[in-house]
Amino acid sequence: MSAPAPVGDDFGARLSFDRGVPGRRAVDVPRWDGEVTPLPDTGLLRDSVRLPELSQGELVRYYTELSARNYGIDSPLGSCTMKYNPKVGDLVASLPGLAEAHPLAPATEVQGTLRTLGELSRGLGEITGLGGVSLAPAAGAQGELAGVLMIARALEDRGELAQRRRILVPDSAHGTNPATAAMAGFTVTQIPTAADGSMDRAVIESELDGSVAAVMVTVPNTLGLVAGLIHDAGAYLYGDGANLNAIMGRVRYGDLGFDVVHLNLHKSFSTPHGGGGPGAGPVCCSEELAPYLPTPVVTEGDDGVVRLTEPERSIGRMQQFGGNVGVLVRAYAYMRALGLDGLRAVSGQAVLNANYLRVLMYGHYDLPYDRPVLHEVVFSGSRQRRTYGVPTYDIAKRLIDHGFHPPTVYFPLIVEEALMIEPTETEPPEAIEALAAAMIAIAAEAEADPETLHRAPLSAPIGRLDEATAARRPVLRWQEDLADCS
Ligand SMILES: Cc1ncc(COP(=O)(O)O)c(C=O)c1O
Questions:
Q1: CATH architecture of 340-459
Q2: Are 73 and 424 in contact (CB under 8 A)?
Q3: Which residue from 49, 120, 295, 422 puts its CA 20 to 30 A from 285's CA?
């Protein structure tokens, strides 16, 4: 084991293991001089579990420092998947009656949990205007897959699956949309975005024929016009509702003519998803598609007992048991705490914040689609790249030095050097102003000192990683031979 570093020195490059001193303890337990009960098979015990050997003070200071460097669920602004995660949601989800309910317990013994899930299903049906709901999918992408498989099954029952093999997806879509269509066995036809950033009605019209199974869209612009066209052509309209917080309480997918939509509860209804935490991607659909919903759905029987049941022509299970109940309970708590008026206020605030940021940053970065936005605004760093050789990647990394979690970059793919910022509904004006000030300072720095930006972040213990290796060959536990990671 390497020599311990002085506290506070070189923080982050040295993990607790690297700081240990043999024999040092955080807790002193008195020696036991009484009778010792032998363990059943001492051969199974390891000689050493090689835990870090530190005093309590060192340990507490280490974790305190570490927590201050963590852009966790309480992070300032940043990613869409790490927004408002009220503590009350965690409290409710950890109530023993909910947290300890066994997934295989008989329905009559877990009525509290099942009723909560039933009320959440009803609430989501109300918010989306699509009353068929399954809470089972564990992520947005899984909800999408469920929705597209439901469409496939409905087409099969109509006797049209063999000829309807295409799904139209705009080129601005989240990558999971075309991936889902392909995984479900369809071919993807990409629809180019019109000059104003919306879907081009004329292009959709020209593509719609008897070979189209569905159209998948995310943002509900132009849909009032398009839904009729799609249904007249015998295709289904799929909605990516991951960004529900832009419109909730104001517009309902069902009223816009959608047949099926998935929601990302871990985005719009609390629960942090960033960093790979658990998610919930319920799928909501019209009456026509309800028989195909994934198993289970929550239903109340004539006997007043709420049960998990299998719809008549269900596509089957997307995952085990009833879904990620902890995430679903947080979403329920969030919905009940806000009420319909609160949910409306959320979407108003999310849109206001994004537009405030758009105005504050205006002129400092290119704005490819220069118009009012919904809950997120997409700038482009192409001017900084072209003129000063500073890519968007450098800009995002430099934001860390200003105390902000970097936003989504290089997405959507149709925007060169994209910087997609979703300030979320819960940030006060001062936070939006501080983010804009940081972005403006970085734009000025790109001009004056591009070299510094190439090296950012300068304040983090570890600056630039080899991201491909970190993703492909991650080292997830301490190894002595890799101890010096500086
Ligand atoms: C618009 C959109 N669709 C789909 C997804 C996929 O959701 P998930 O990451 O839960 O699979 C996301 C994720 O952020 C998204 O933003």
A1: Alpha-Beta Complex (3.90)
A2: no
A3: 422
Strands 283-285 and 236-241: unpaired
Is the C-beta atom of 180 inside 6 A of ligand 1?
no
What residue owns the CA closest to ligand 1's atom 6?
140
Cα–Cα distance for residue pair 117/129, rounded to 1 Å: 18
* Index of the ligand 1 atom closest to the CA of residue 281: 10
Instruction: Report the separation in Å between the CA atom of 102 and the middle of ligand 1, taken as the mean of its atom positions.
Output: 29
Both tokens of residue 479? 């190894």
Give 295: exposed, middle or buried? Use CB within 10 Å, 0-12, 13-18, 19+: middle
Asked if pLDDT for residue 18 goes beyond 90, the answer is: no
Nearest CA among 167, 131, 163 for reference residue 149: 167
Determine whether the shortest distance from the Cβ of 279 to ligand 1 is under 6 A: yes
pLDDT at 50: 80
The best mutation among 82, 83, 148, 174 to test binding of ligand 1, ranked by most ligand atoms within 8 Å of the C-beta, falls on: 174
Q: Which CATH number, 3.40.50.2300, 1.10.10.10, 3.30.300.30, 3.40.640.10, labels domain 88-336?
A: 3.40.640.10
Contact 399, 419 (CB under 8 A): no
Residues 107 and 305 sit within 8 Å (Cβ to Cβ): yes
Q: Is the CB of 408 under 6 A from ligand 1?
A: no
DSSP assignment of 277-331, as one string?
------EEE-TTTGGGPPBPEEEE-TTS-EEEE--TT---BSSSTTS-HHHHHHH
Q: What is the pLDDT of residues 178-209, one digit of tens each?
A: 999 999 999 999 999 887 777 788 888 999 99
Q: Coil, helix or strand for 456?
A: coil
Which ligand 1 atom lies nearest to the CA of residue 144? Answer: 4
Q: How confident is the model at residue 7 (pLDDT cuts 50, 70, 90)?
A: very low
Angle at CA 86, nearest 5°, toward 437 and 373? 45
Structure tokens at 56: 């309590």
